[in-house]
Design goal:
mainly alpha, UPF0014_fam, transmembrane helix
């Protein structure tokens, strides 16, 4: 801690020394200290953007469309549709925010926040996940919306000095950024849980058969899923300012605000994004694992639904799956493959399969012997 504090003091002293230098700019050209002040409004050479400027910018995508057609990527339609969606969605968002920023009615503000949370939960449940389970939409909504609203209220009131904390001009943009980060983290985490439970199904069932508790069975899955889901957020925060310039800081800089003040705002926002992503992902991952490993405890992969076509399985897989489903329908805990191989239904299927295989081999052997005798 002392080393980190010393490094912070050195960086702070160097920044103060550079800030006192006046050779790089005249006092009249210094940017204002207020983040809300914009020098663009006073610059007569800067014209406001119009739809013509948006159209000119859209023409740059023509290069990508030509390359897609030339290489046969099949992405030209996706580029056009995505561009149209971006323009329509941002236009509608701008019209709504323009009206919300004129009012401070908490009913309208939190109604929009709940609407954004509903869309984020729908995106996670029906578009970004390969599988679904009962209650997934409600769990994703609570995890994404609850963590985003809680972190935004705490950060706006104590870190961004916003009073009241739900002021529309700062609260809605902050919550919108948190929703985007939470959506990615929750999607990765939930998909990792479902995939891990399916991959390590036999090991989890064996642990449950030997008396492992619900938390002992799902803890390794939860830990691994959280690690994989939080890697993008942590990497983005570590590379911020070194390998990339964040969008929030770029926007404030383009508006003519003080760059140092904008960097502090960006620090607060990045910390809020990481904290909200970690909280929402942890809630969603634990909820997903708790549903698929119920309180019996029993692994309930039969609750998962998917839109992918069913693939054919071999006879051994069919017998084990059928036995597992039979035990699930009977309300019993599913056993490991070692137990299922000794289950009467499995033994019957295995015996039938072995008998048919032996009969086929015997019949083939008789035919070969008969053919050899005839050759003699």
């Amino acid at each position: 801690m002392s080393l980190l504090y010393s490094a912070f003091q050195v960086v702070r002293a160097a920044g103060d020394a550079v800030a006192q230098l006046q050779w790089y700019a005249t006092p009249s050209s210094q940017p204002s200290s207020g983040i809300a002040h914009s020098n663009i409004d006073n610059d007569q050479n800067q014209q406001p953007l119009s739809w013509f400027n948006v159209g000119i910018a859209s023409l740059m995508l023509a290069i990508n469309i030509v390359l897609s057609l030339w290489l046969g990527l099949g992405m030209s339609k996706s580029l056009i549709v995505s561009t149209v969606r971006c323009i329509v969605q941002l236009t509608a968002l701008g019209m709504v925010l323009n009206q919300l920023f004129l009012t401070e009615n908490p009913v309208y503000i939190f109604s929009m926040v709940l609407g954004l949370g509903t869309l984020a939960a729908f995106e996670v449940t029906y578009w970004r996940s390969k599988h679904r389970f009962p209650g997934m939409f409600a769990g994703a909504f609570v995890a994404i919306t609850g963590s985003a609203v809680g972190v935004a209220l705490f950060g706006n009131s104590l870190s961004l000095n916003t009073h009241p904390a739900y002021t529309a001009q700062k609260f809605i943009p902050t919550v919108g950024m948190l929703f985007g980060a939470n959506l990615i983290g929750v999607s990765i985490g939930v998909n990792a849980v479902m995939s891990s439970l399916d991959t390590h199904r036999d090991r989890i069932e064996s642990a449950l058969c030997y008396g492992a508790s619900r938390w002992e069975a799902m803890k390794p899955v939860v830990v691994a899923s959280l690690k994989s889901a939080l890697v993008p957020s942590i990497s983005n925060m570590s590379a911020c300012g070194l390998l990339s310039i964040p969008g929030l800081m770029v926007g404030w800089s383009l508006s003519g605000a003080n760059v140092l003040v904008a960097s502090r705002y960006q620090m607060v926002v990045m910390i809020m994004l990481t904290a909200s992503t970690a909280l929402s992902t942890m809630l969603a991952v634990i909820f997903c694992a708790s549903v698929l490993i119920n309180g019996t405890p029993m692994l309930r992969l039969d609750l998962l639904t998917t839109n992918k076509p069913k693939q054919a399985v071999n006879m051994s897989g069919t017998s084990r799956s059928s036995s597992r489903m039979t035990l699930l329908r009977a309300g019993r805990r599913p056993k490991s493959d070692l137990y299922l191989s000794r289950h009467p239904s499995c033994v019957a299927v295995a015996s039938t399969t072995t008998s048919s295989t032996t009969a086929t081999r015997t019949h083939s052997g008789v035919r070969l012997i008969s053919a050899a005798a005839a050759g003699r």
